[in-house]
Amino acid sequence: MSWFGDQVREIGMSVKKGVKSLFTGLEQFFFAEEAPYGLALVRMCLPTVALIPMFRRFFRVRELYSADGCPQQLAELFGNGRLLPELPAEFAAALYGVMLFALICGVFGFRTRLSFLIGAPLYIYFNMLDAIGTMTKYSVIAAHVLLILSISDCGAVWSVDAVLKRRAGGGGLSVLPVRVPVWPARLIQILFAAIYFGAAITKVQTPEFFSGEQMRYWLVSNWNWPNPIGELMALSPAMLMVSGYITVVWEVTFPFLAWRPLGRFAALGMGVAFHVMTIFALGLWIFPFICTTCYLAFLQESDIAAIRAMVAKLRIRWEWLGRPRVMAAMLLERRPVMVPLAGIWLAAGLVVAVGSVEADYRLDVYGIRSNGAPLALPAMDMATVRQMINSQEPLREKDKFFSFDIGSMVMAGQLANRRSQFAAGEVIIAQCNLNPPHEDLWVECVIQDAEDRVIDVAGQFVTRDQLYAKFNYLTAEKLVPGQYWVVLKSSGQEVSRRPFELTGDAIGGRGAEGLLAN
């Protein structure tokens, strides 16, 4: 019994050590103290990018976000009515100006926490008021990160607040930066790990993503900005399929690599490459920069030290980057002693709010000031009206098809190569890709010789849920060396044709005369 008791005690002590080690690791992961350089970079970069579309919408506040316009709230899209208050245009303009001012103050780090505590909720409010145009994936990500910044010490370094604090302490600019727990940066990192992992789970359940069909239609669309590189990439199905698998593998492994010494750089490097490619391939601009600026939260104190050492070796002078905050701090120090910094912030915010109301009044979007009443909607041209209501221009048969190619290799259901020359005995694969939506179609693939004589005809139904169809031809059965055409027909109409040459010796010694007799 004593031996058994000793074993039980040893097992219990091992379990206690394991549990203690686990909690120690978690505590170190969330509460290790570092200078918040990464958070400071996120603080400066993320709001700057998020403000680009918000500045452009300032001239349409009355239309998009006020009771005088037609805001479409996010709750309405889910059938929950209008949960948020829709303010008169003057109040909406004032709050919108305060939001812009608060986020700009956050960028420079002037009353940092106060700025984000005011700017972040207003940013979320205006996004949720316009779920059609303003609320997007990047604005959701930005909203989460702004909330995390509002409860962090991101203004402890590289900010007006930090300069004022150092100068007030008499330490100048050479004092070592304050060290704070890293848990706010960890929250941003976990946010992106969850985003990527969730995106991978969604893609795994979408077969069209792995076949390249979904990616192809993203690439050829111009819903965002022009993307000529994407249109060229859409013509390479094999590359799209390989890219799809690489993307899913990266998104699944991101949470397991992001906190490893070497895996961190691999995961973040692939992430930067992925988001940069979306700029040129999909025409996205704000979304890639929102994501890549949030990657700065993964930078550690040692990374910043390495970057500084490299900059010093390259003799790059970057002291001028800190001059705006130093000059702002020197200007604020000239205020009367009895005036608190928060009071200056609130006074400046009030001036911005009044200026925003005046700007809305001067813009006069609806012409109320200039005409005494809202502008009347202009009447549409009656010919255009009749065409829109009564005329349904028939869709050409060839417009139902995206592409038609021939090759010899298939990957994940898609033609992986294009060829125009085949050897006798090879299998020719002809594939057509269709544009959704389309009705049920009868599609034929016809092989013709150089003199347009029909050699073979194959057909199949392509139902409305299918986006591609394939036809396989064994050249040894009916074809002899020579020049041929593969012709795609739909509803009896020619849609496209591709030439090919068959080389080598005729199989079985059959000549063209015997072929045509078949």
Task: Give your account of this protein's structure.
The chain has 518 residues and is of the alpha+beta class. It has two domains: 30-350, no CATH class; 400-517, Immunoglobulin-like, CATH 2.60.40. Helices cover 54% and strands 14% of the residues. It is built from 22 helices and twelve strands. The strands form four sheets. The chain has a five-stranded mixed beta sheet, with no helix packed on it. A hairpin with a 2-residue loop joins strand 11 and strand 12. The longest helix has 30 residues, at 2-31. The chain is globular.
Largest sheet geometry: 5 strands, mixed
Low-confidence stretches: 509-518
SS-based class: alpha+beta
The rounded distance between the terminal residues' Cα atoms is 92 Å
- DSSP summary: helix tally: 22
Which strand-content bin applies to the residues? 5-15%
Shape: globular
The average pLDDT is 86
The share of residues in helices is 40-55%
Q: Strand order, main sheet: write it out.
A: 6-12-11-8-9
Query: What is the CA-based Rg, rounded?
Result: 32 Å
Q: How many DSSP E strands?
A: 12
Structural domain count = 2
